[in-house]
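Annual report, structural modelling task.

Input specification for the 2-acetamido-2-deoxy-beta-D-glucopyranose complex:
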Amino acid sequence: MFSTYIEVALLCHPVLAFLTVQNPKMHIKHSNLQYFIFSFLSLLVLRYACSAYVFPSEISIALCATNDQPNPIAHIYPGNATGTLNGTIAVIPISLELARQMIPPQYGILEHAYRALLPSFPKGMYPAVVQALHDHEVQAFGYKIDDFSRTGIEFPFVDMLNDNQTSFKWAPSMLMTAGHDIALNGAMDYGTNTFPATFDPGCDAYRAVPNSKKPGTTYFSARSSEAGAASLTTVFSSAEEEVFPLEFFKNFTNQPTFADGKTCDNMIRLYNTSVTTAPNQIQSVKGTVRANLFPFPGEKEWKNVYGLRLDTAFIENNYLPCENFRGYAGHE
Ligand SMILES: *[C@@H]1O[C@H](CO)[C@@H](O)[C@H](O)[C@H]1NC(C)=O
Ligand SMILES: *[C@@H]1O[C@H](CO)[C@@H](O)[C@H](O)[C@H]1NC(C)=O
Ligand SMILES: *[C@@H]1O[C@H](CO)[C@@H](O)[C@H](O)[C@H]1NC(C)=O
Ligand SMILES: *[C@@H]1O[C@H](CO)[C@@H](O)[C@H](O)[C@H]1NC(C)=O
Ligand SMILES: *[C@@H]1O[C@H](CO)[C@@H](O)[C@H](O)[C@H]1NC(C)=O
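The model returned the following structure:
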């Protein structure tokens, strides 16, 4: 899907190039100022026409400025989809019984796999995870798409191949920046319940809560454009204690992800680039998550949720046969 849109974008760009080449002829008849005004206006009109046709709300999204650092790996993997994901990831312990009710019955839950990583995780519980992320400088072959935000509650350690070994992450639903058709269609093609949404902040992973009593308090919220359909809000503060080891986050964020099970998304999140390894980039946090999101029945609130605020670079390989990942344990 991503590549289809790049092709459409390419169709637009030659028109722009053609116009810029043709315009210098007018230079002879008009003054410099007139020429500049004319070419500026025609580029604007063309860009608008192009955007309105292909990306209806590109203009409104493009007005956003972000604090995210640039994609540090685009030049290393120019032929792959790369980007950065800045935001909060946290573990929501739920009962295994509830997890079993929500995860489709044909898929097992690899309890031994998460217990190998979290030996003291409470008995009878399962680690669902929340991700609240800002996708930044996502690109391939030098074509960048607009930034967008997304959030959802995901279910790692799912035995989708029934081999009692390979962990997959089931991501059944997602709130995603309204109007960003590339991202929305990209998620829908996995069979994800995708909710176009308004995010606060609009162009960042989270924002500071002013005058908060707790240090390092940040806020993030997403509300579906269709009122009441879905929402997710988080408030996190700095935590002294690290309840779940970084290895656990690395492990589940790198599990192949699926929604309806027809294809799998291989999102390779790198924890070894400058956006992650610079001093104080990974922050332990504790907070509250409130969500009204399928497959949870009704609105839920979880307190004392532990997680991390961090940015990572990623490489994404889309729409792969899930069978390809039999025995996959994540990248080294
Ligand atoms: C991640 O986002 C936060 C909030 O906008 C920002 O302060 C931080 O600098 C970002 N981190 C990186 C590495 O871009
Ligand atoms: C980059 O994309 C190619 C072609 O899709 C794929 O074979 C390769 O594994 C990707 N590279 C990484 C590091 O994922
Ligand atoms: C992820 O955790 C599982 C154990 O649950 C382990 O077998 C696998 O090697 C881990 N992957 C990585 C990349 O550490
Ligand atoms: C799955 O593998 C685990 C660990 O190797 C083992 O303890 C468990 O009995 C296996 N379950 C089944 C159903 O084979
Ligand atoms: C980061 O990790 C990836 C995958 O594990 C590896 O290919 C790459 O060389 C590493 N980069 C650095 C800067 O260490």
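The chain has two domains: 2-58, 81-325.
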